[in-house]
Amino acid sequence: MRRPLVAGNWKMNGTRASVAELTESLRMQDMPTSVEVVVFPCALHVMQVVDGLNGAAIDVGAQDCAADVGFGAFTGEESATQLLDSGCEWVLVGHSERRLIFGESDDVVSKKFVSALECGLTPVLCVGETLEQRQAGKTVEVVARQLAHVLAQAGVQAFGRAVVAYEPVWAIGSGLTASPQQAQEVHAAIRAQLASEDQRIADGIRLLYGGSVKAENAAELFGMADIDGGLIGGASLKANDFGAICRAA
Length: 249
Ligand code: PEP
Description:
alpha/beta
């Protein structure tokens, strides 16, 4: 049995005051113990949120990490080493906003994935196709290529300590959600790709769906055989909505 996981990506949102409010409201939510919950504030707010959620069953992660571990001359970056030191346990890697706006290649994403694991963080590897790629019938091919790159660099055993999030780019922040069947098809393909290298890893790994998940559509998506939870953007900024999504998992 895979334990459901719901992750909230707060992106570049919040002030110290609003983050304190959100954190406090999350503490008040009735979170199901059967579901693992993690939030990803911006790096500046990580320590505040770690302190604010102390004692609550909600983990904290970062939205990105440097490709290199340790310390060094990489202005503006945070290494997995530093994130761990700040209280993070998780990190997103390869979010489509990083890939598309900041030009992160599969190679860089793979290095970040390896660095996160090397430091003891759990990486959530994000993969997904653009609308153009979906319309060209290339969804599974694109996702398989993104996954293959990381598999080649990290090895399949690394996925025993990782999570993969399928996030169609056209569904992120757009209000458009992949249908449960569309999402399931890609999740099944991801699991089959991992199974072709190691069945045990494929059976155990949690695969999340992300892209305009709301309280109203969460249960149906999470009810699909290969969808083990969600990566939630916009709706994770409202504690009540996020709580409802967690309870749907
Ligand atoms: C995301 O950015 O990872 C995401 C899924 O966003 P939203 O839920 O707002 O579509």
